[in-house]
Amino acid sequence: MGIRVKARYENKVLKPLEGLDLKEGEDVEIEVKKALVEEFHGKMKIDKEIADEIIEMEVWD
After folding, report:
1. CA 2 remoteness from chain centre
2. Is 51 helix (H, G, I), strand (E, B) or coil?
3. How many helices (H) and strands (E) does the chain have?
4. E strand or H helix at 38, and its extent?
5. SS3 4
6. pLDDT tens digits, residue range 39-48?
7. pTM
8. What are the boundaries of each domain within the chain?
9. How far apart are CA 38 and CA 1, in angstroms?
10. 12 in the Ramachandran plot: left (φ > 0), alpha (ψ -120 to 50) or beta?
11. pLDDT tens string 6-32
12. Which segments within 1-61 are labelled E, that is strand?
């Protein structure tokens, strides 16, 4: 079974932005991808706030 969750990197730790249905001590495998805004940074001129809104649109899920 797999899940997909967004996380934020703070103080050298990945912090999920939502709860995870995991047991204490459970091992997981993580694939890290940068947010689309970071990937395309500098390739188009658009305010970061507008880019964030576009990325959060349900059409991308």
Report:
1. 15
2. helix
3. 2, 2
4. helix 36-39
5. coil
6. 666 666 778 8
7. 0.49
8. 34-61
9. 29
10. left
11. 899 999 999 999 999 899 999 999 888
12. 7-10, 13-16
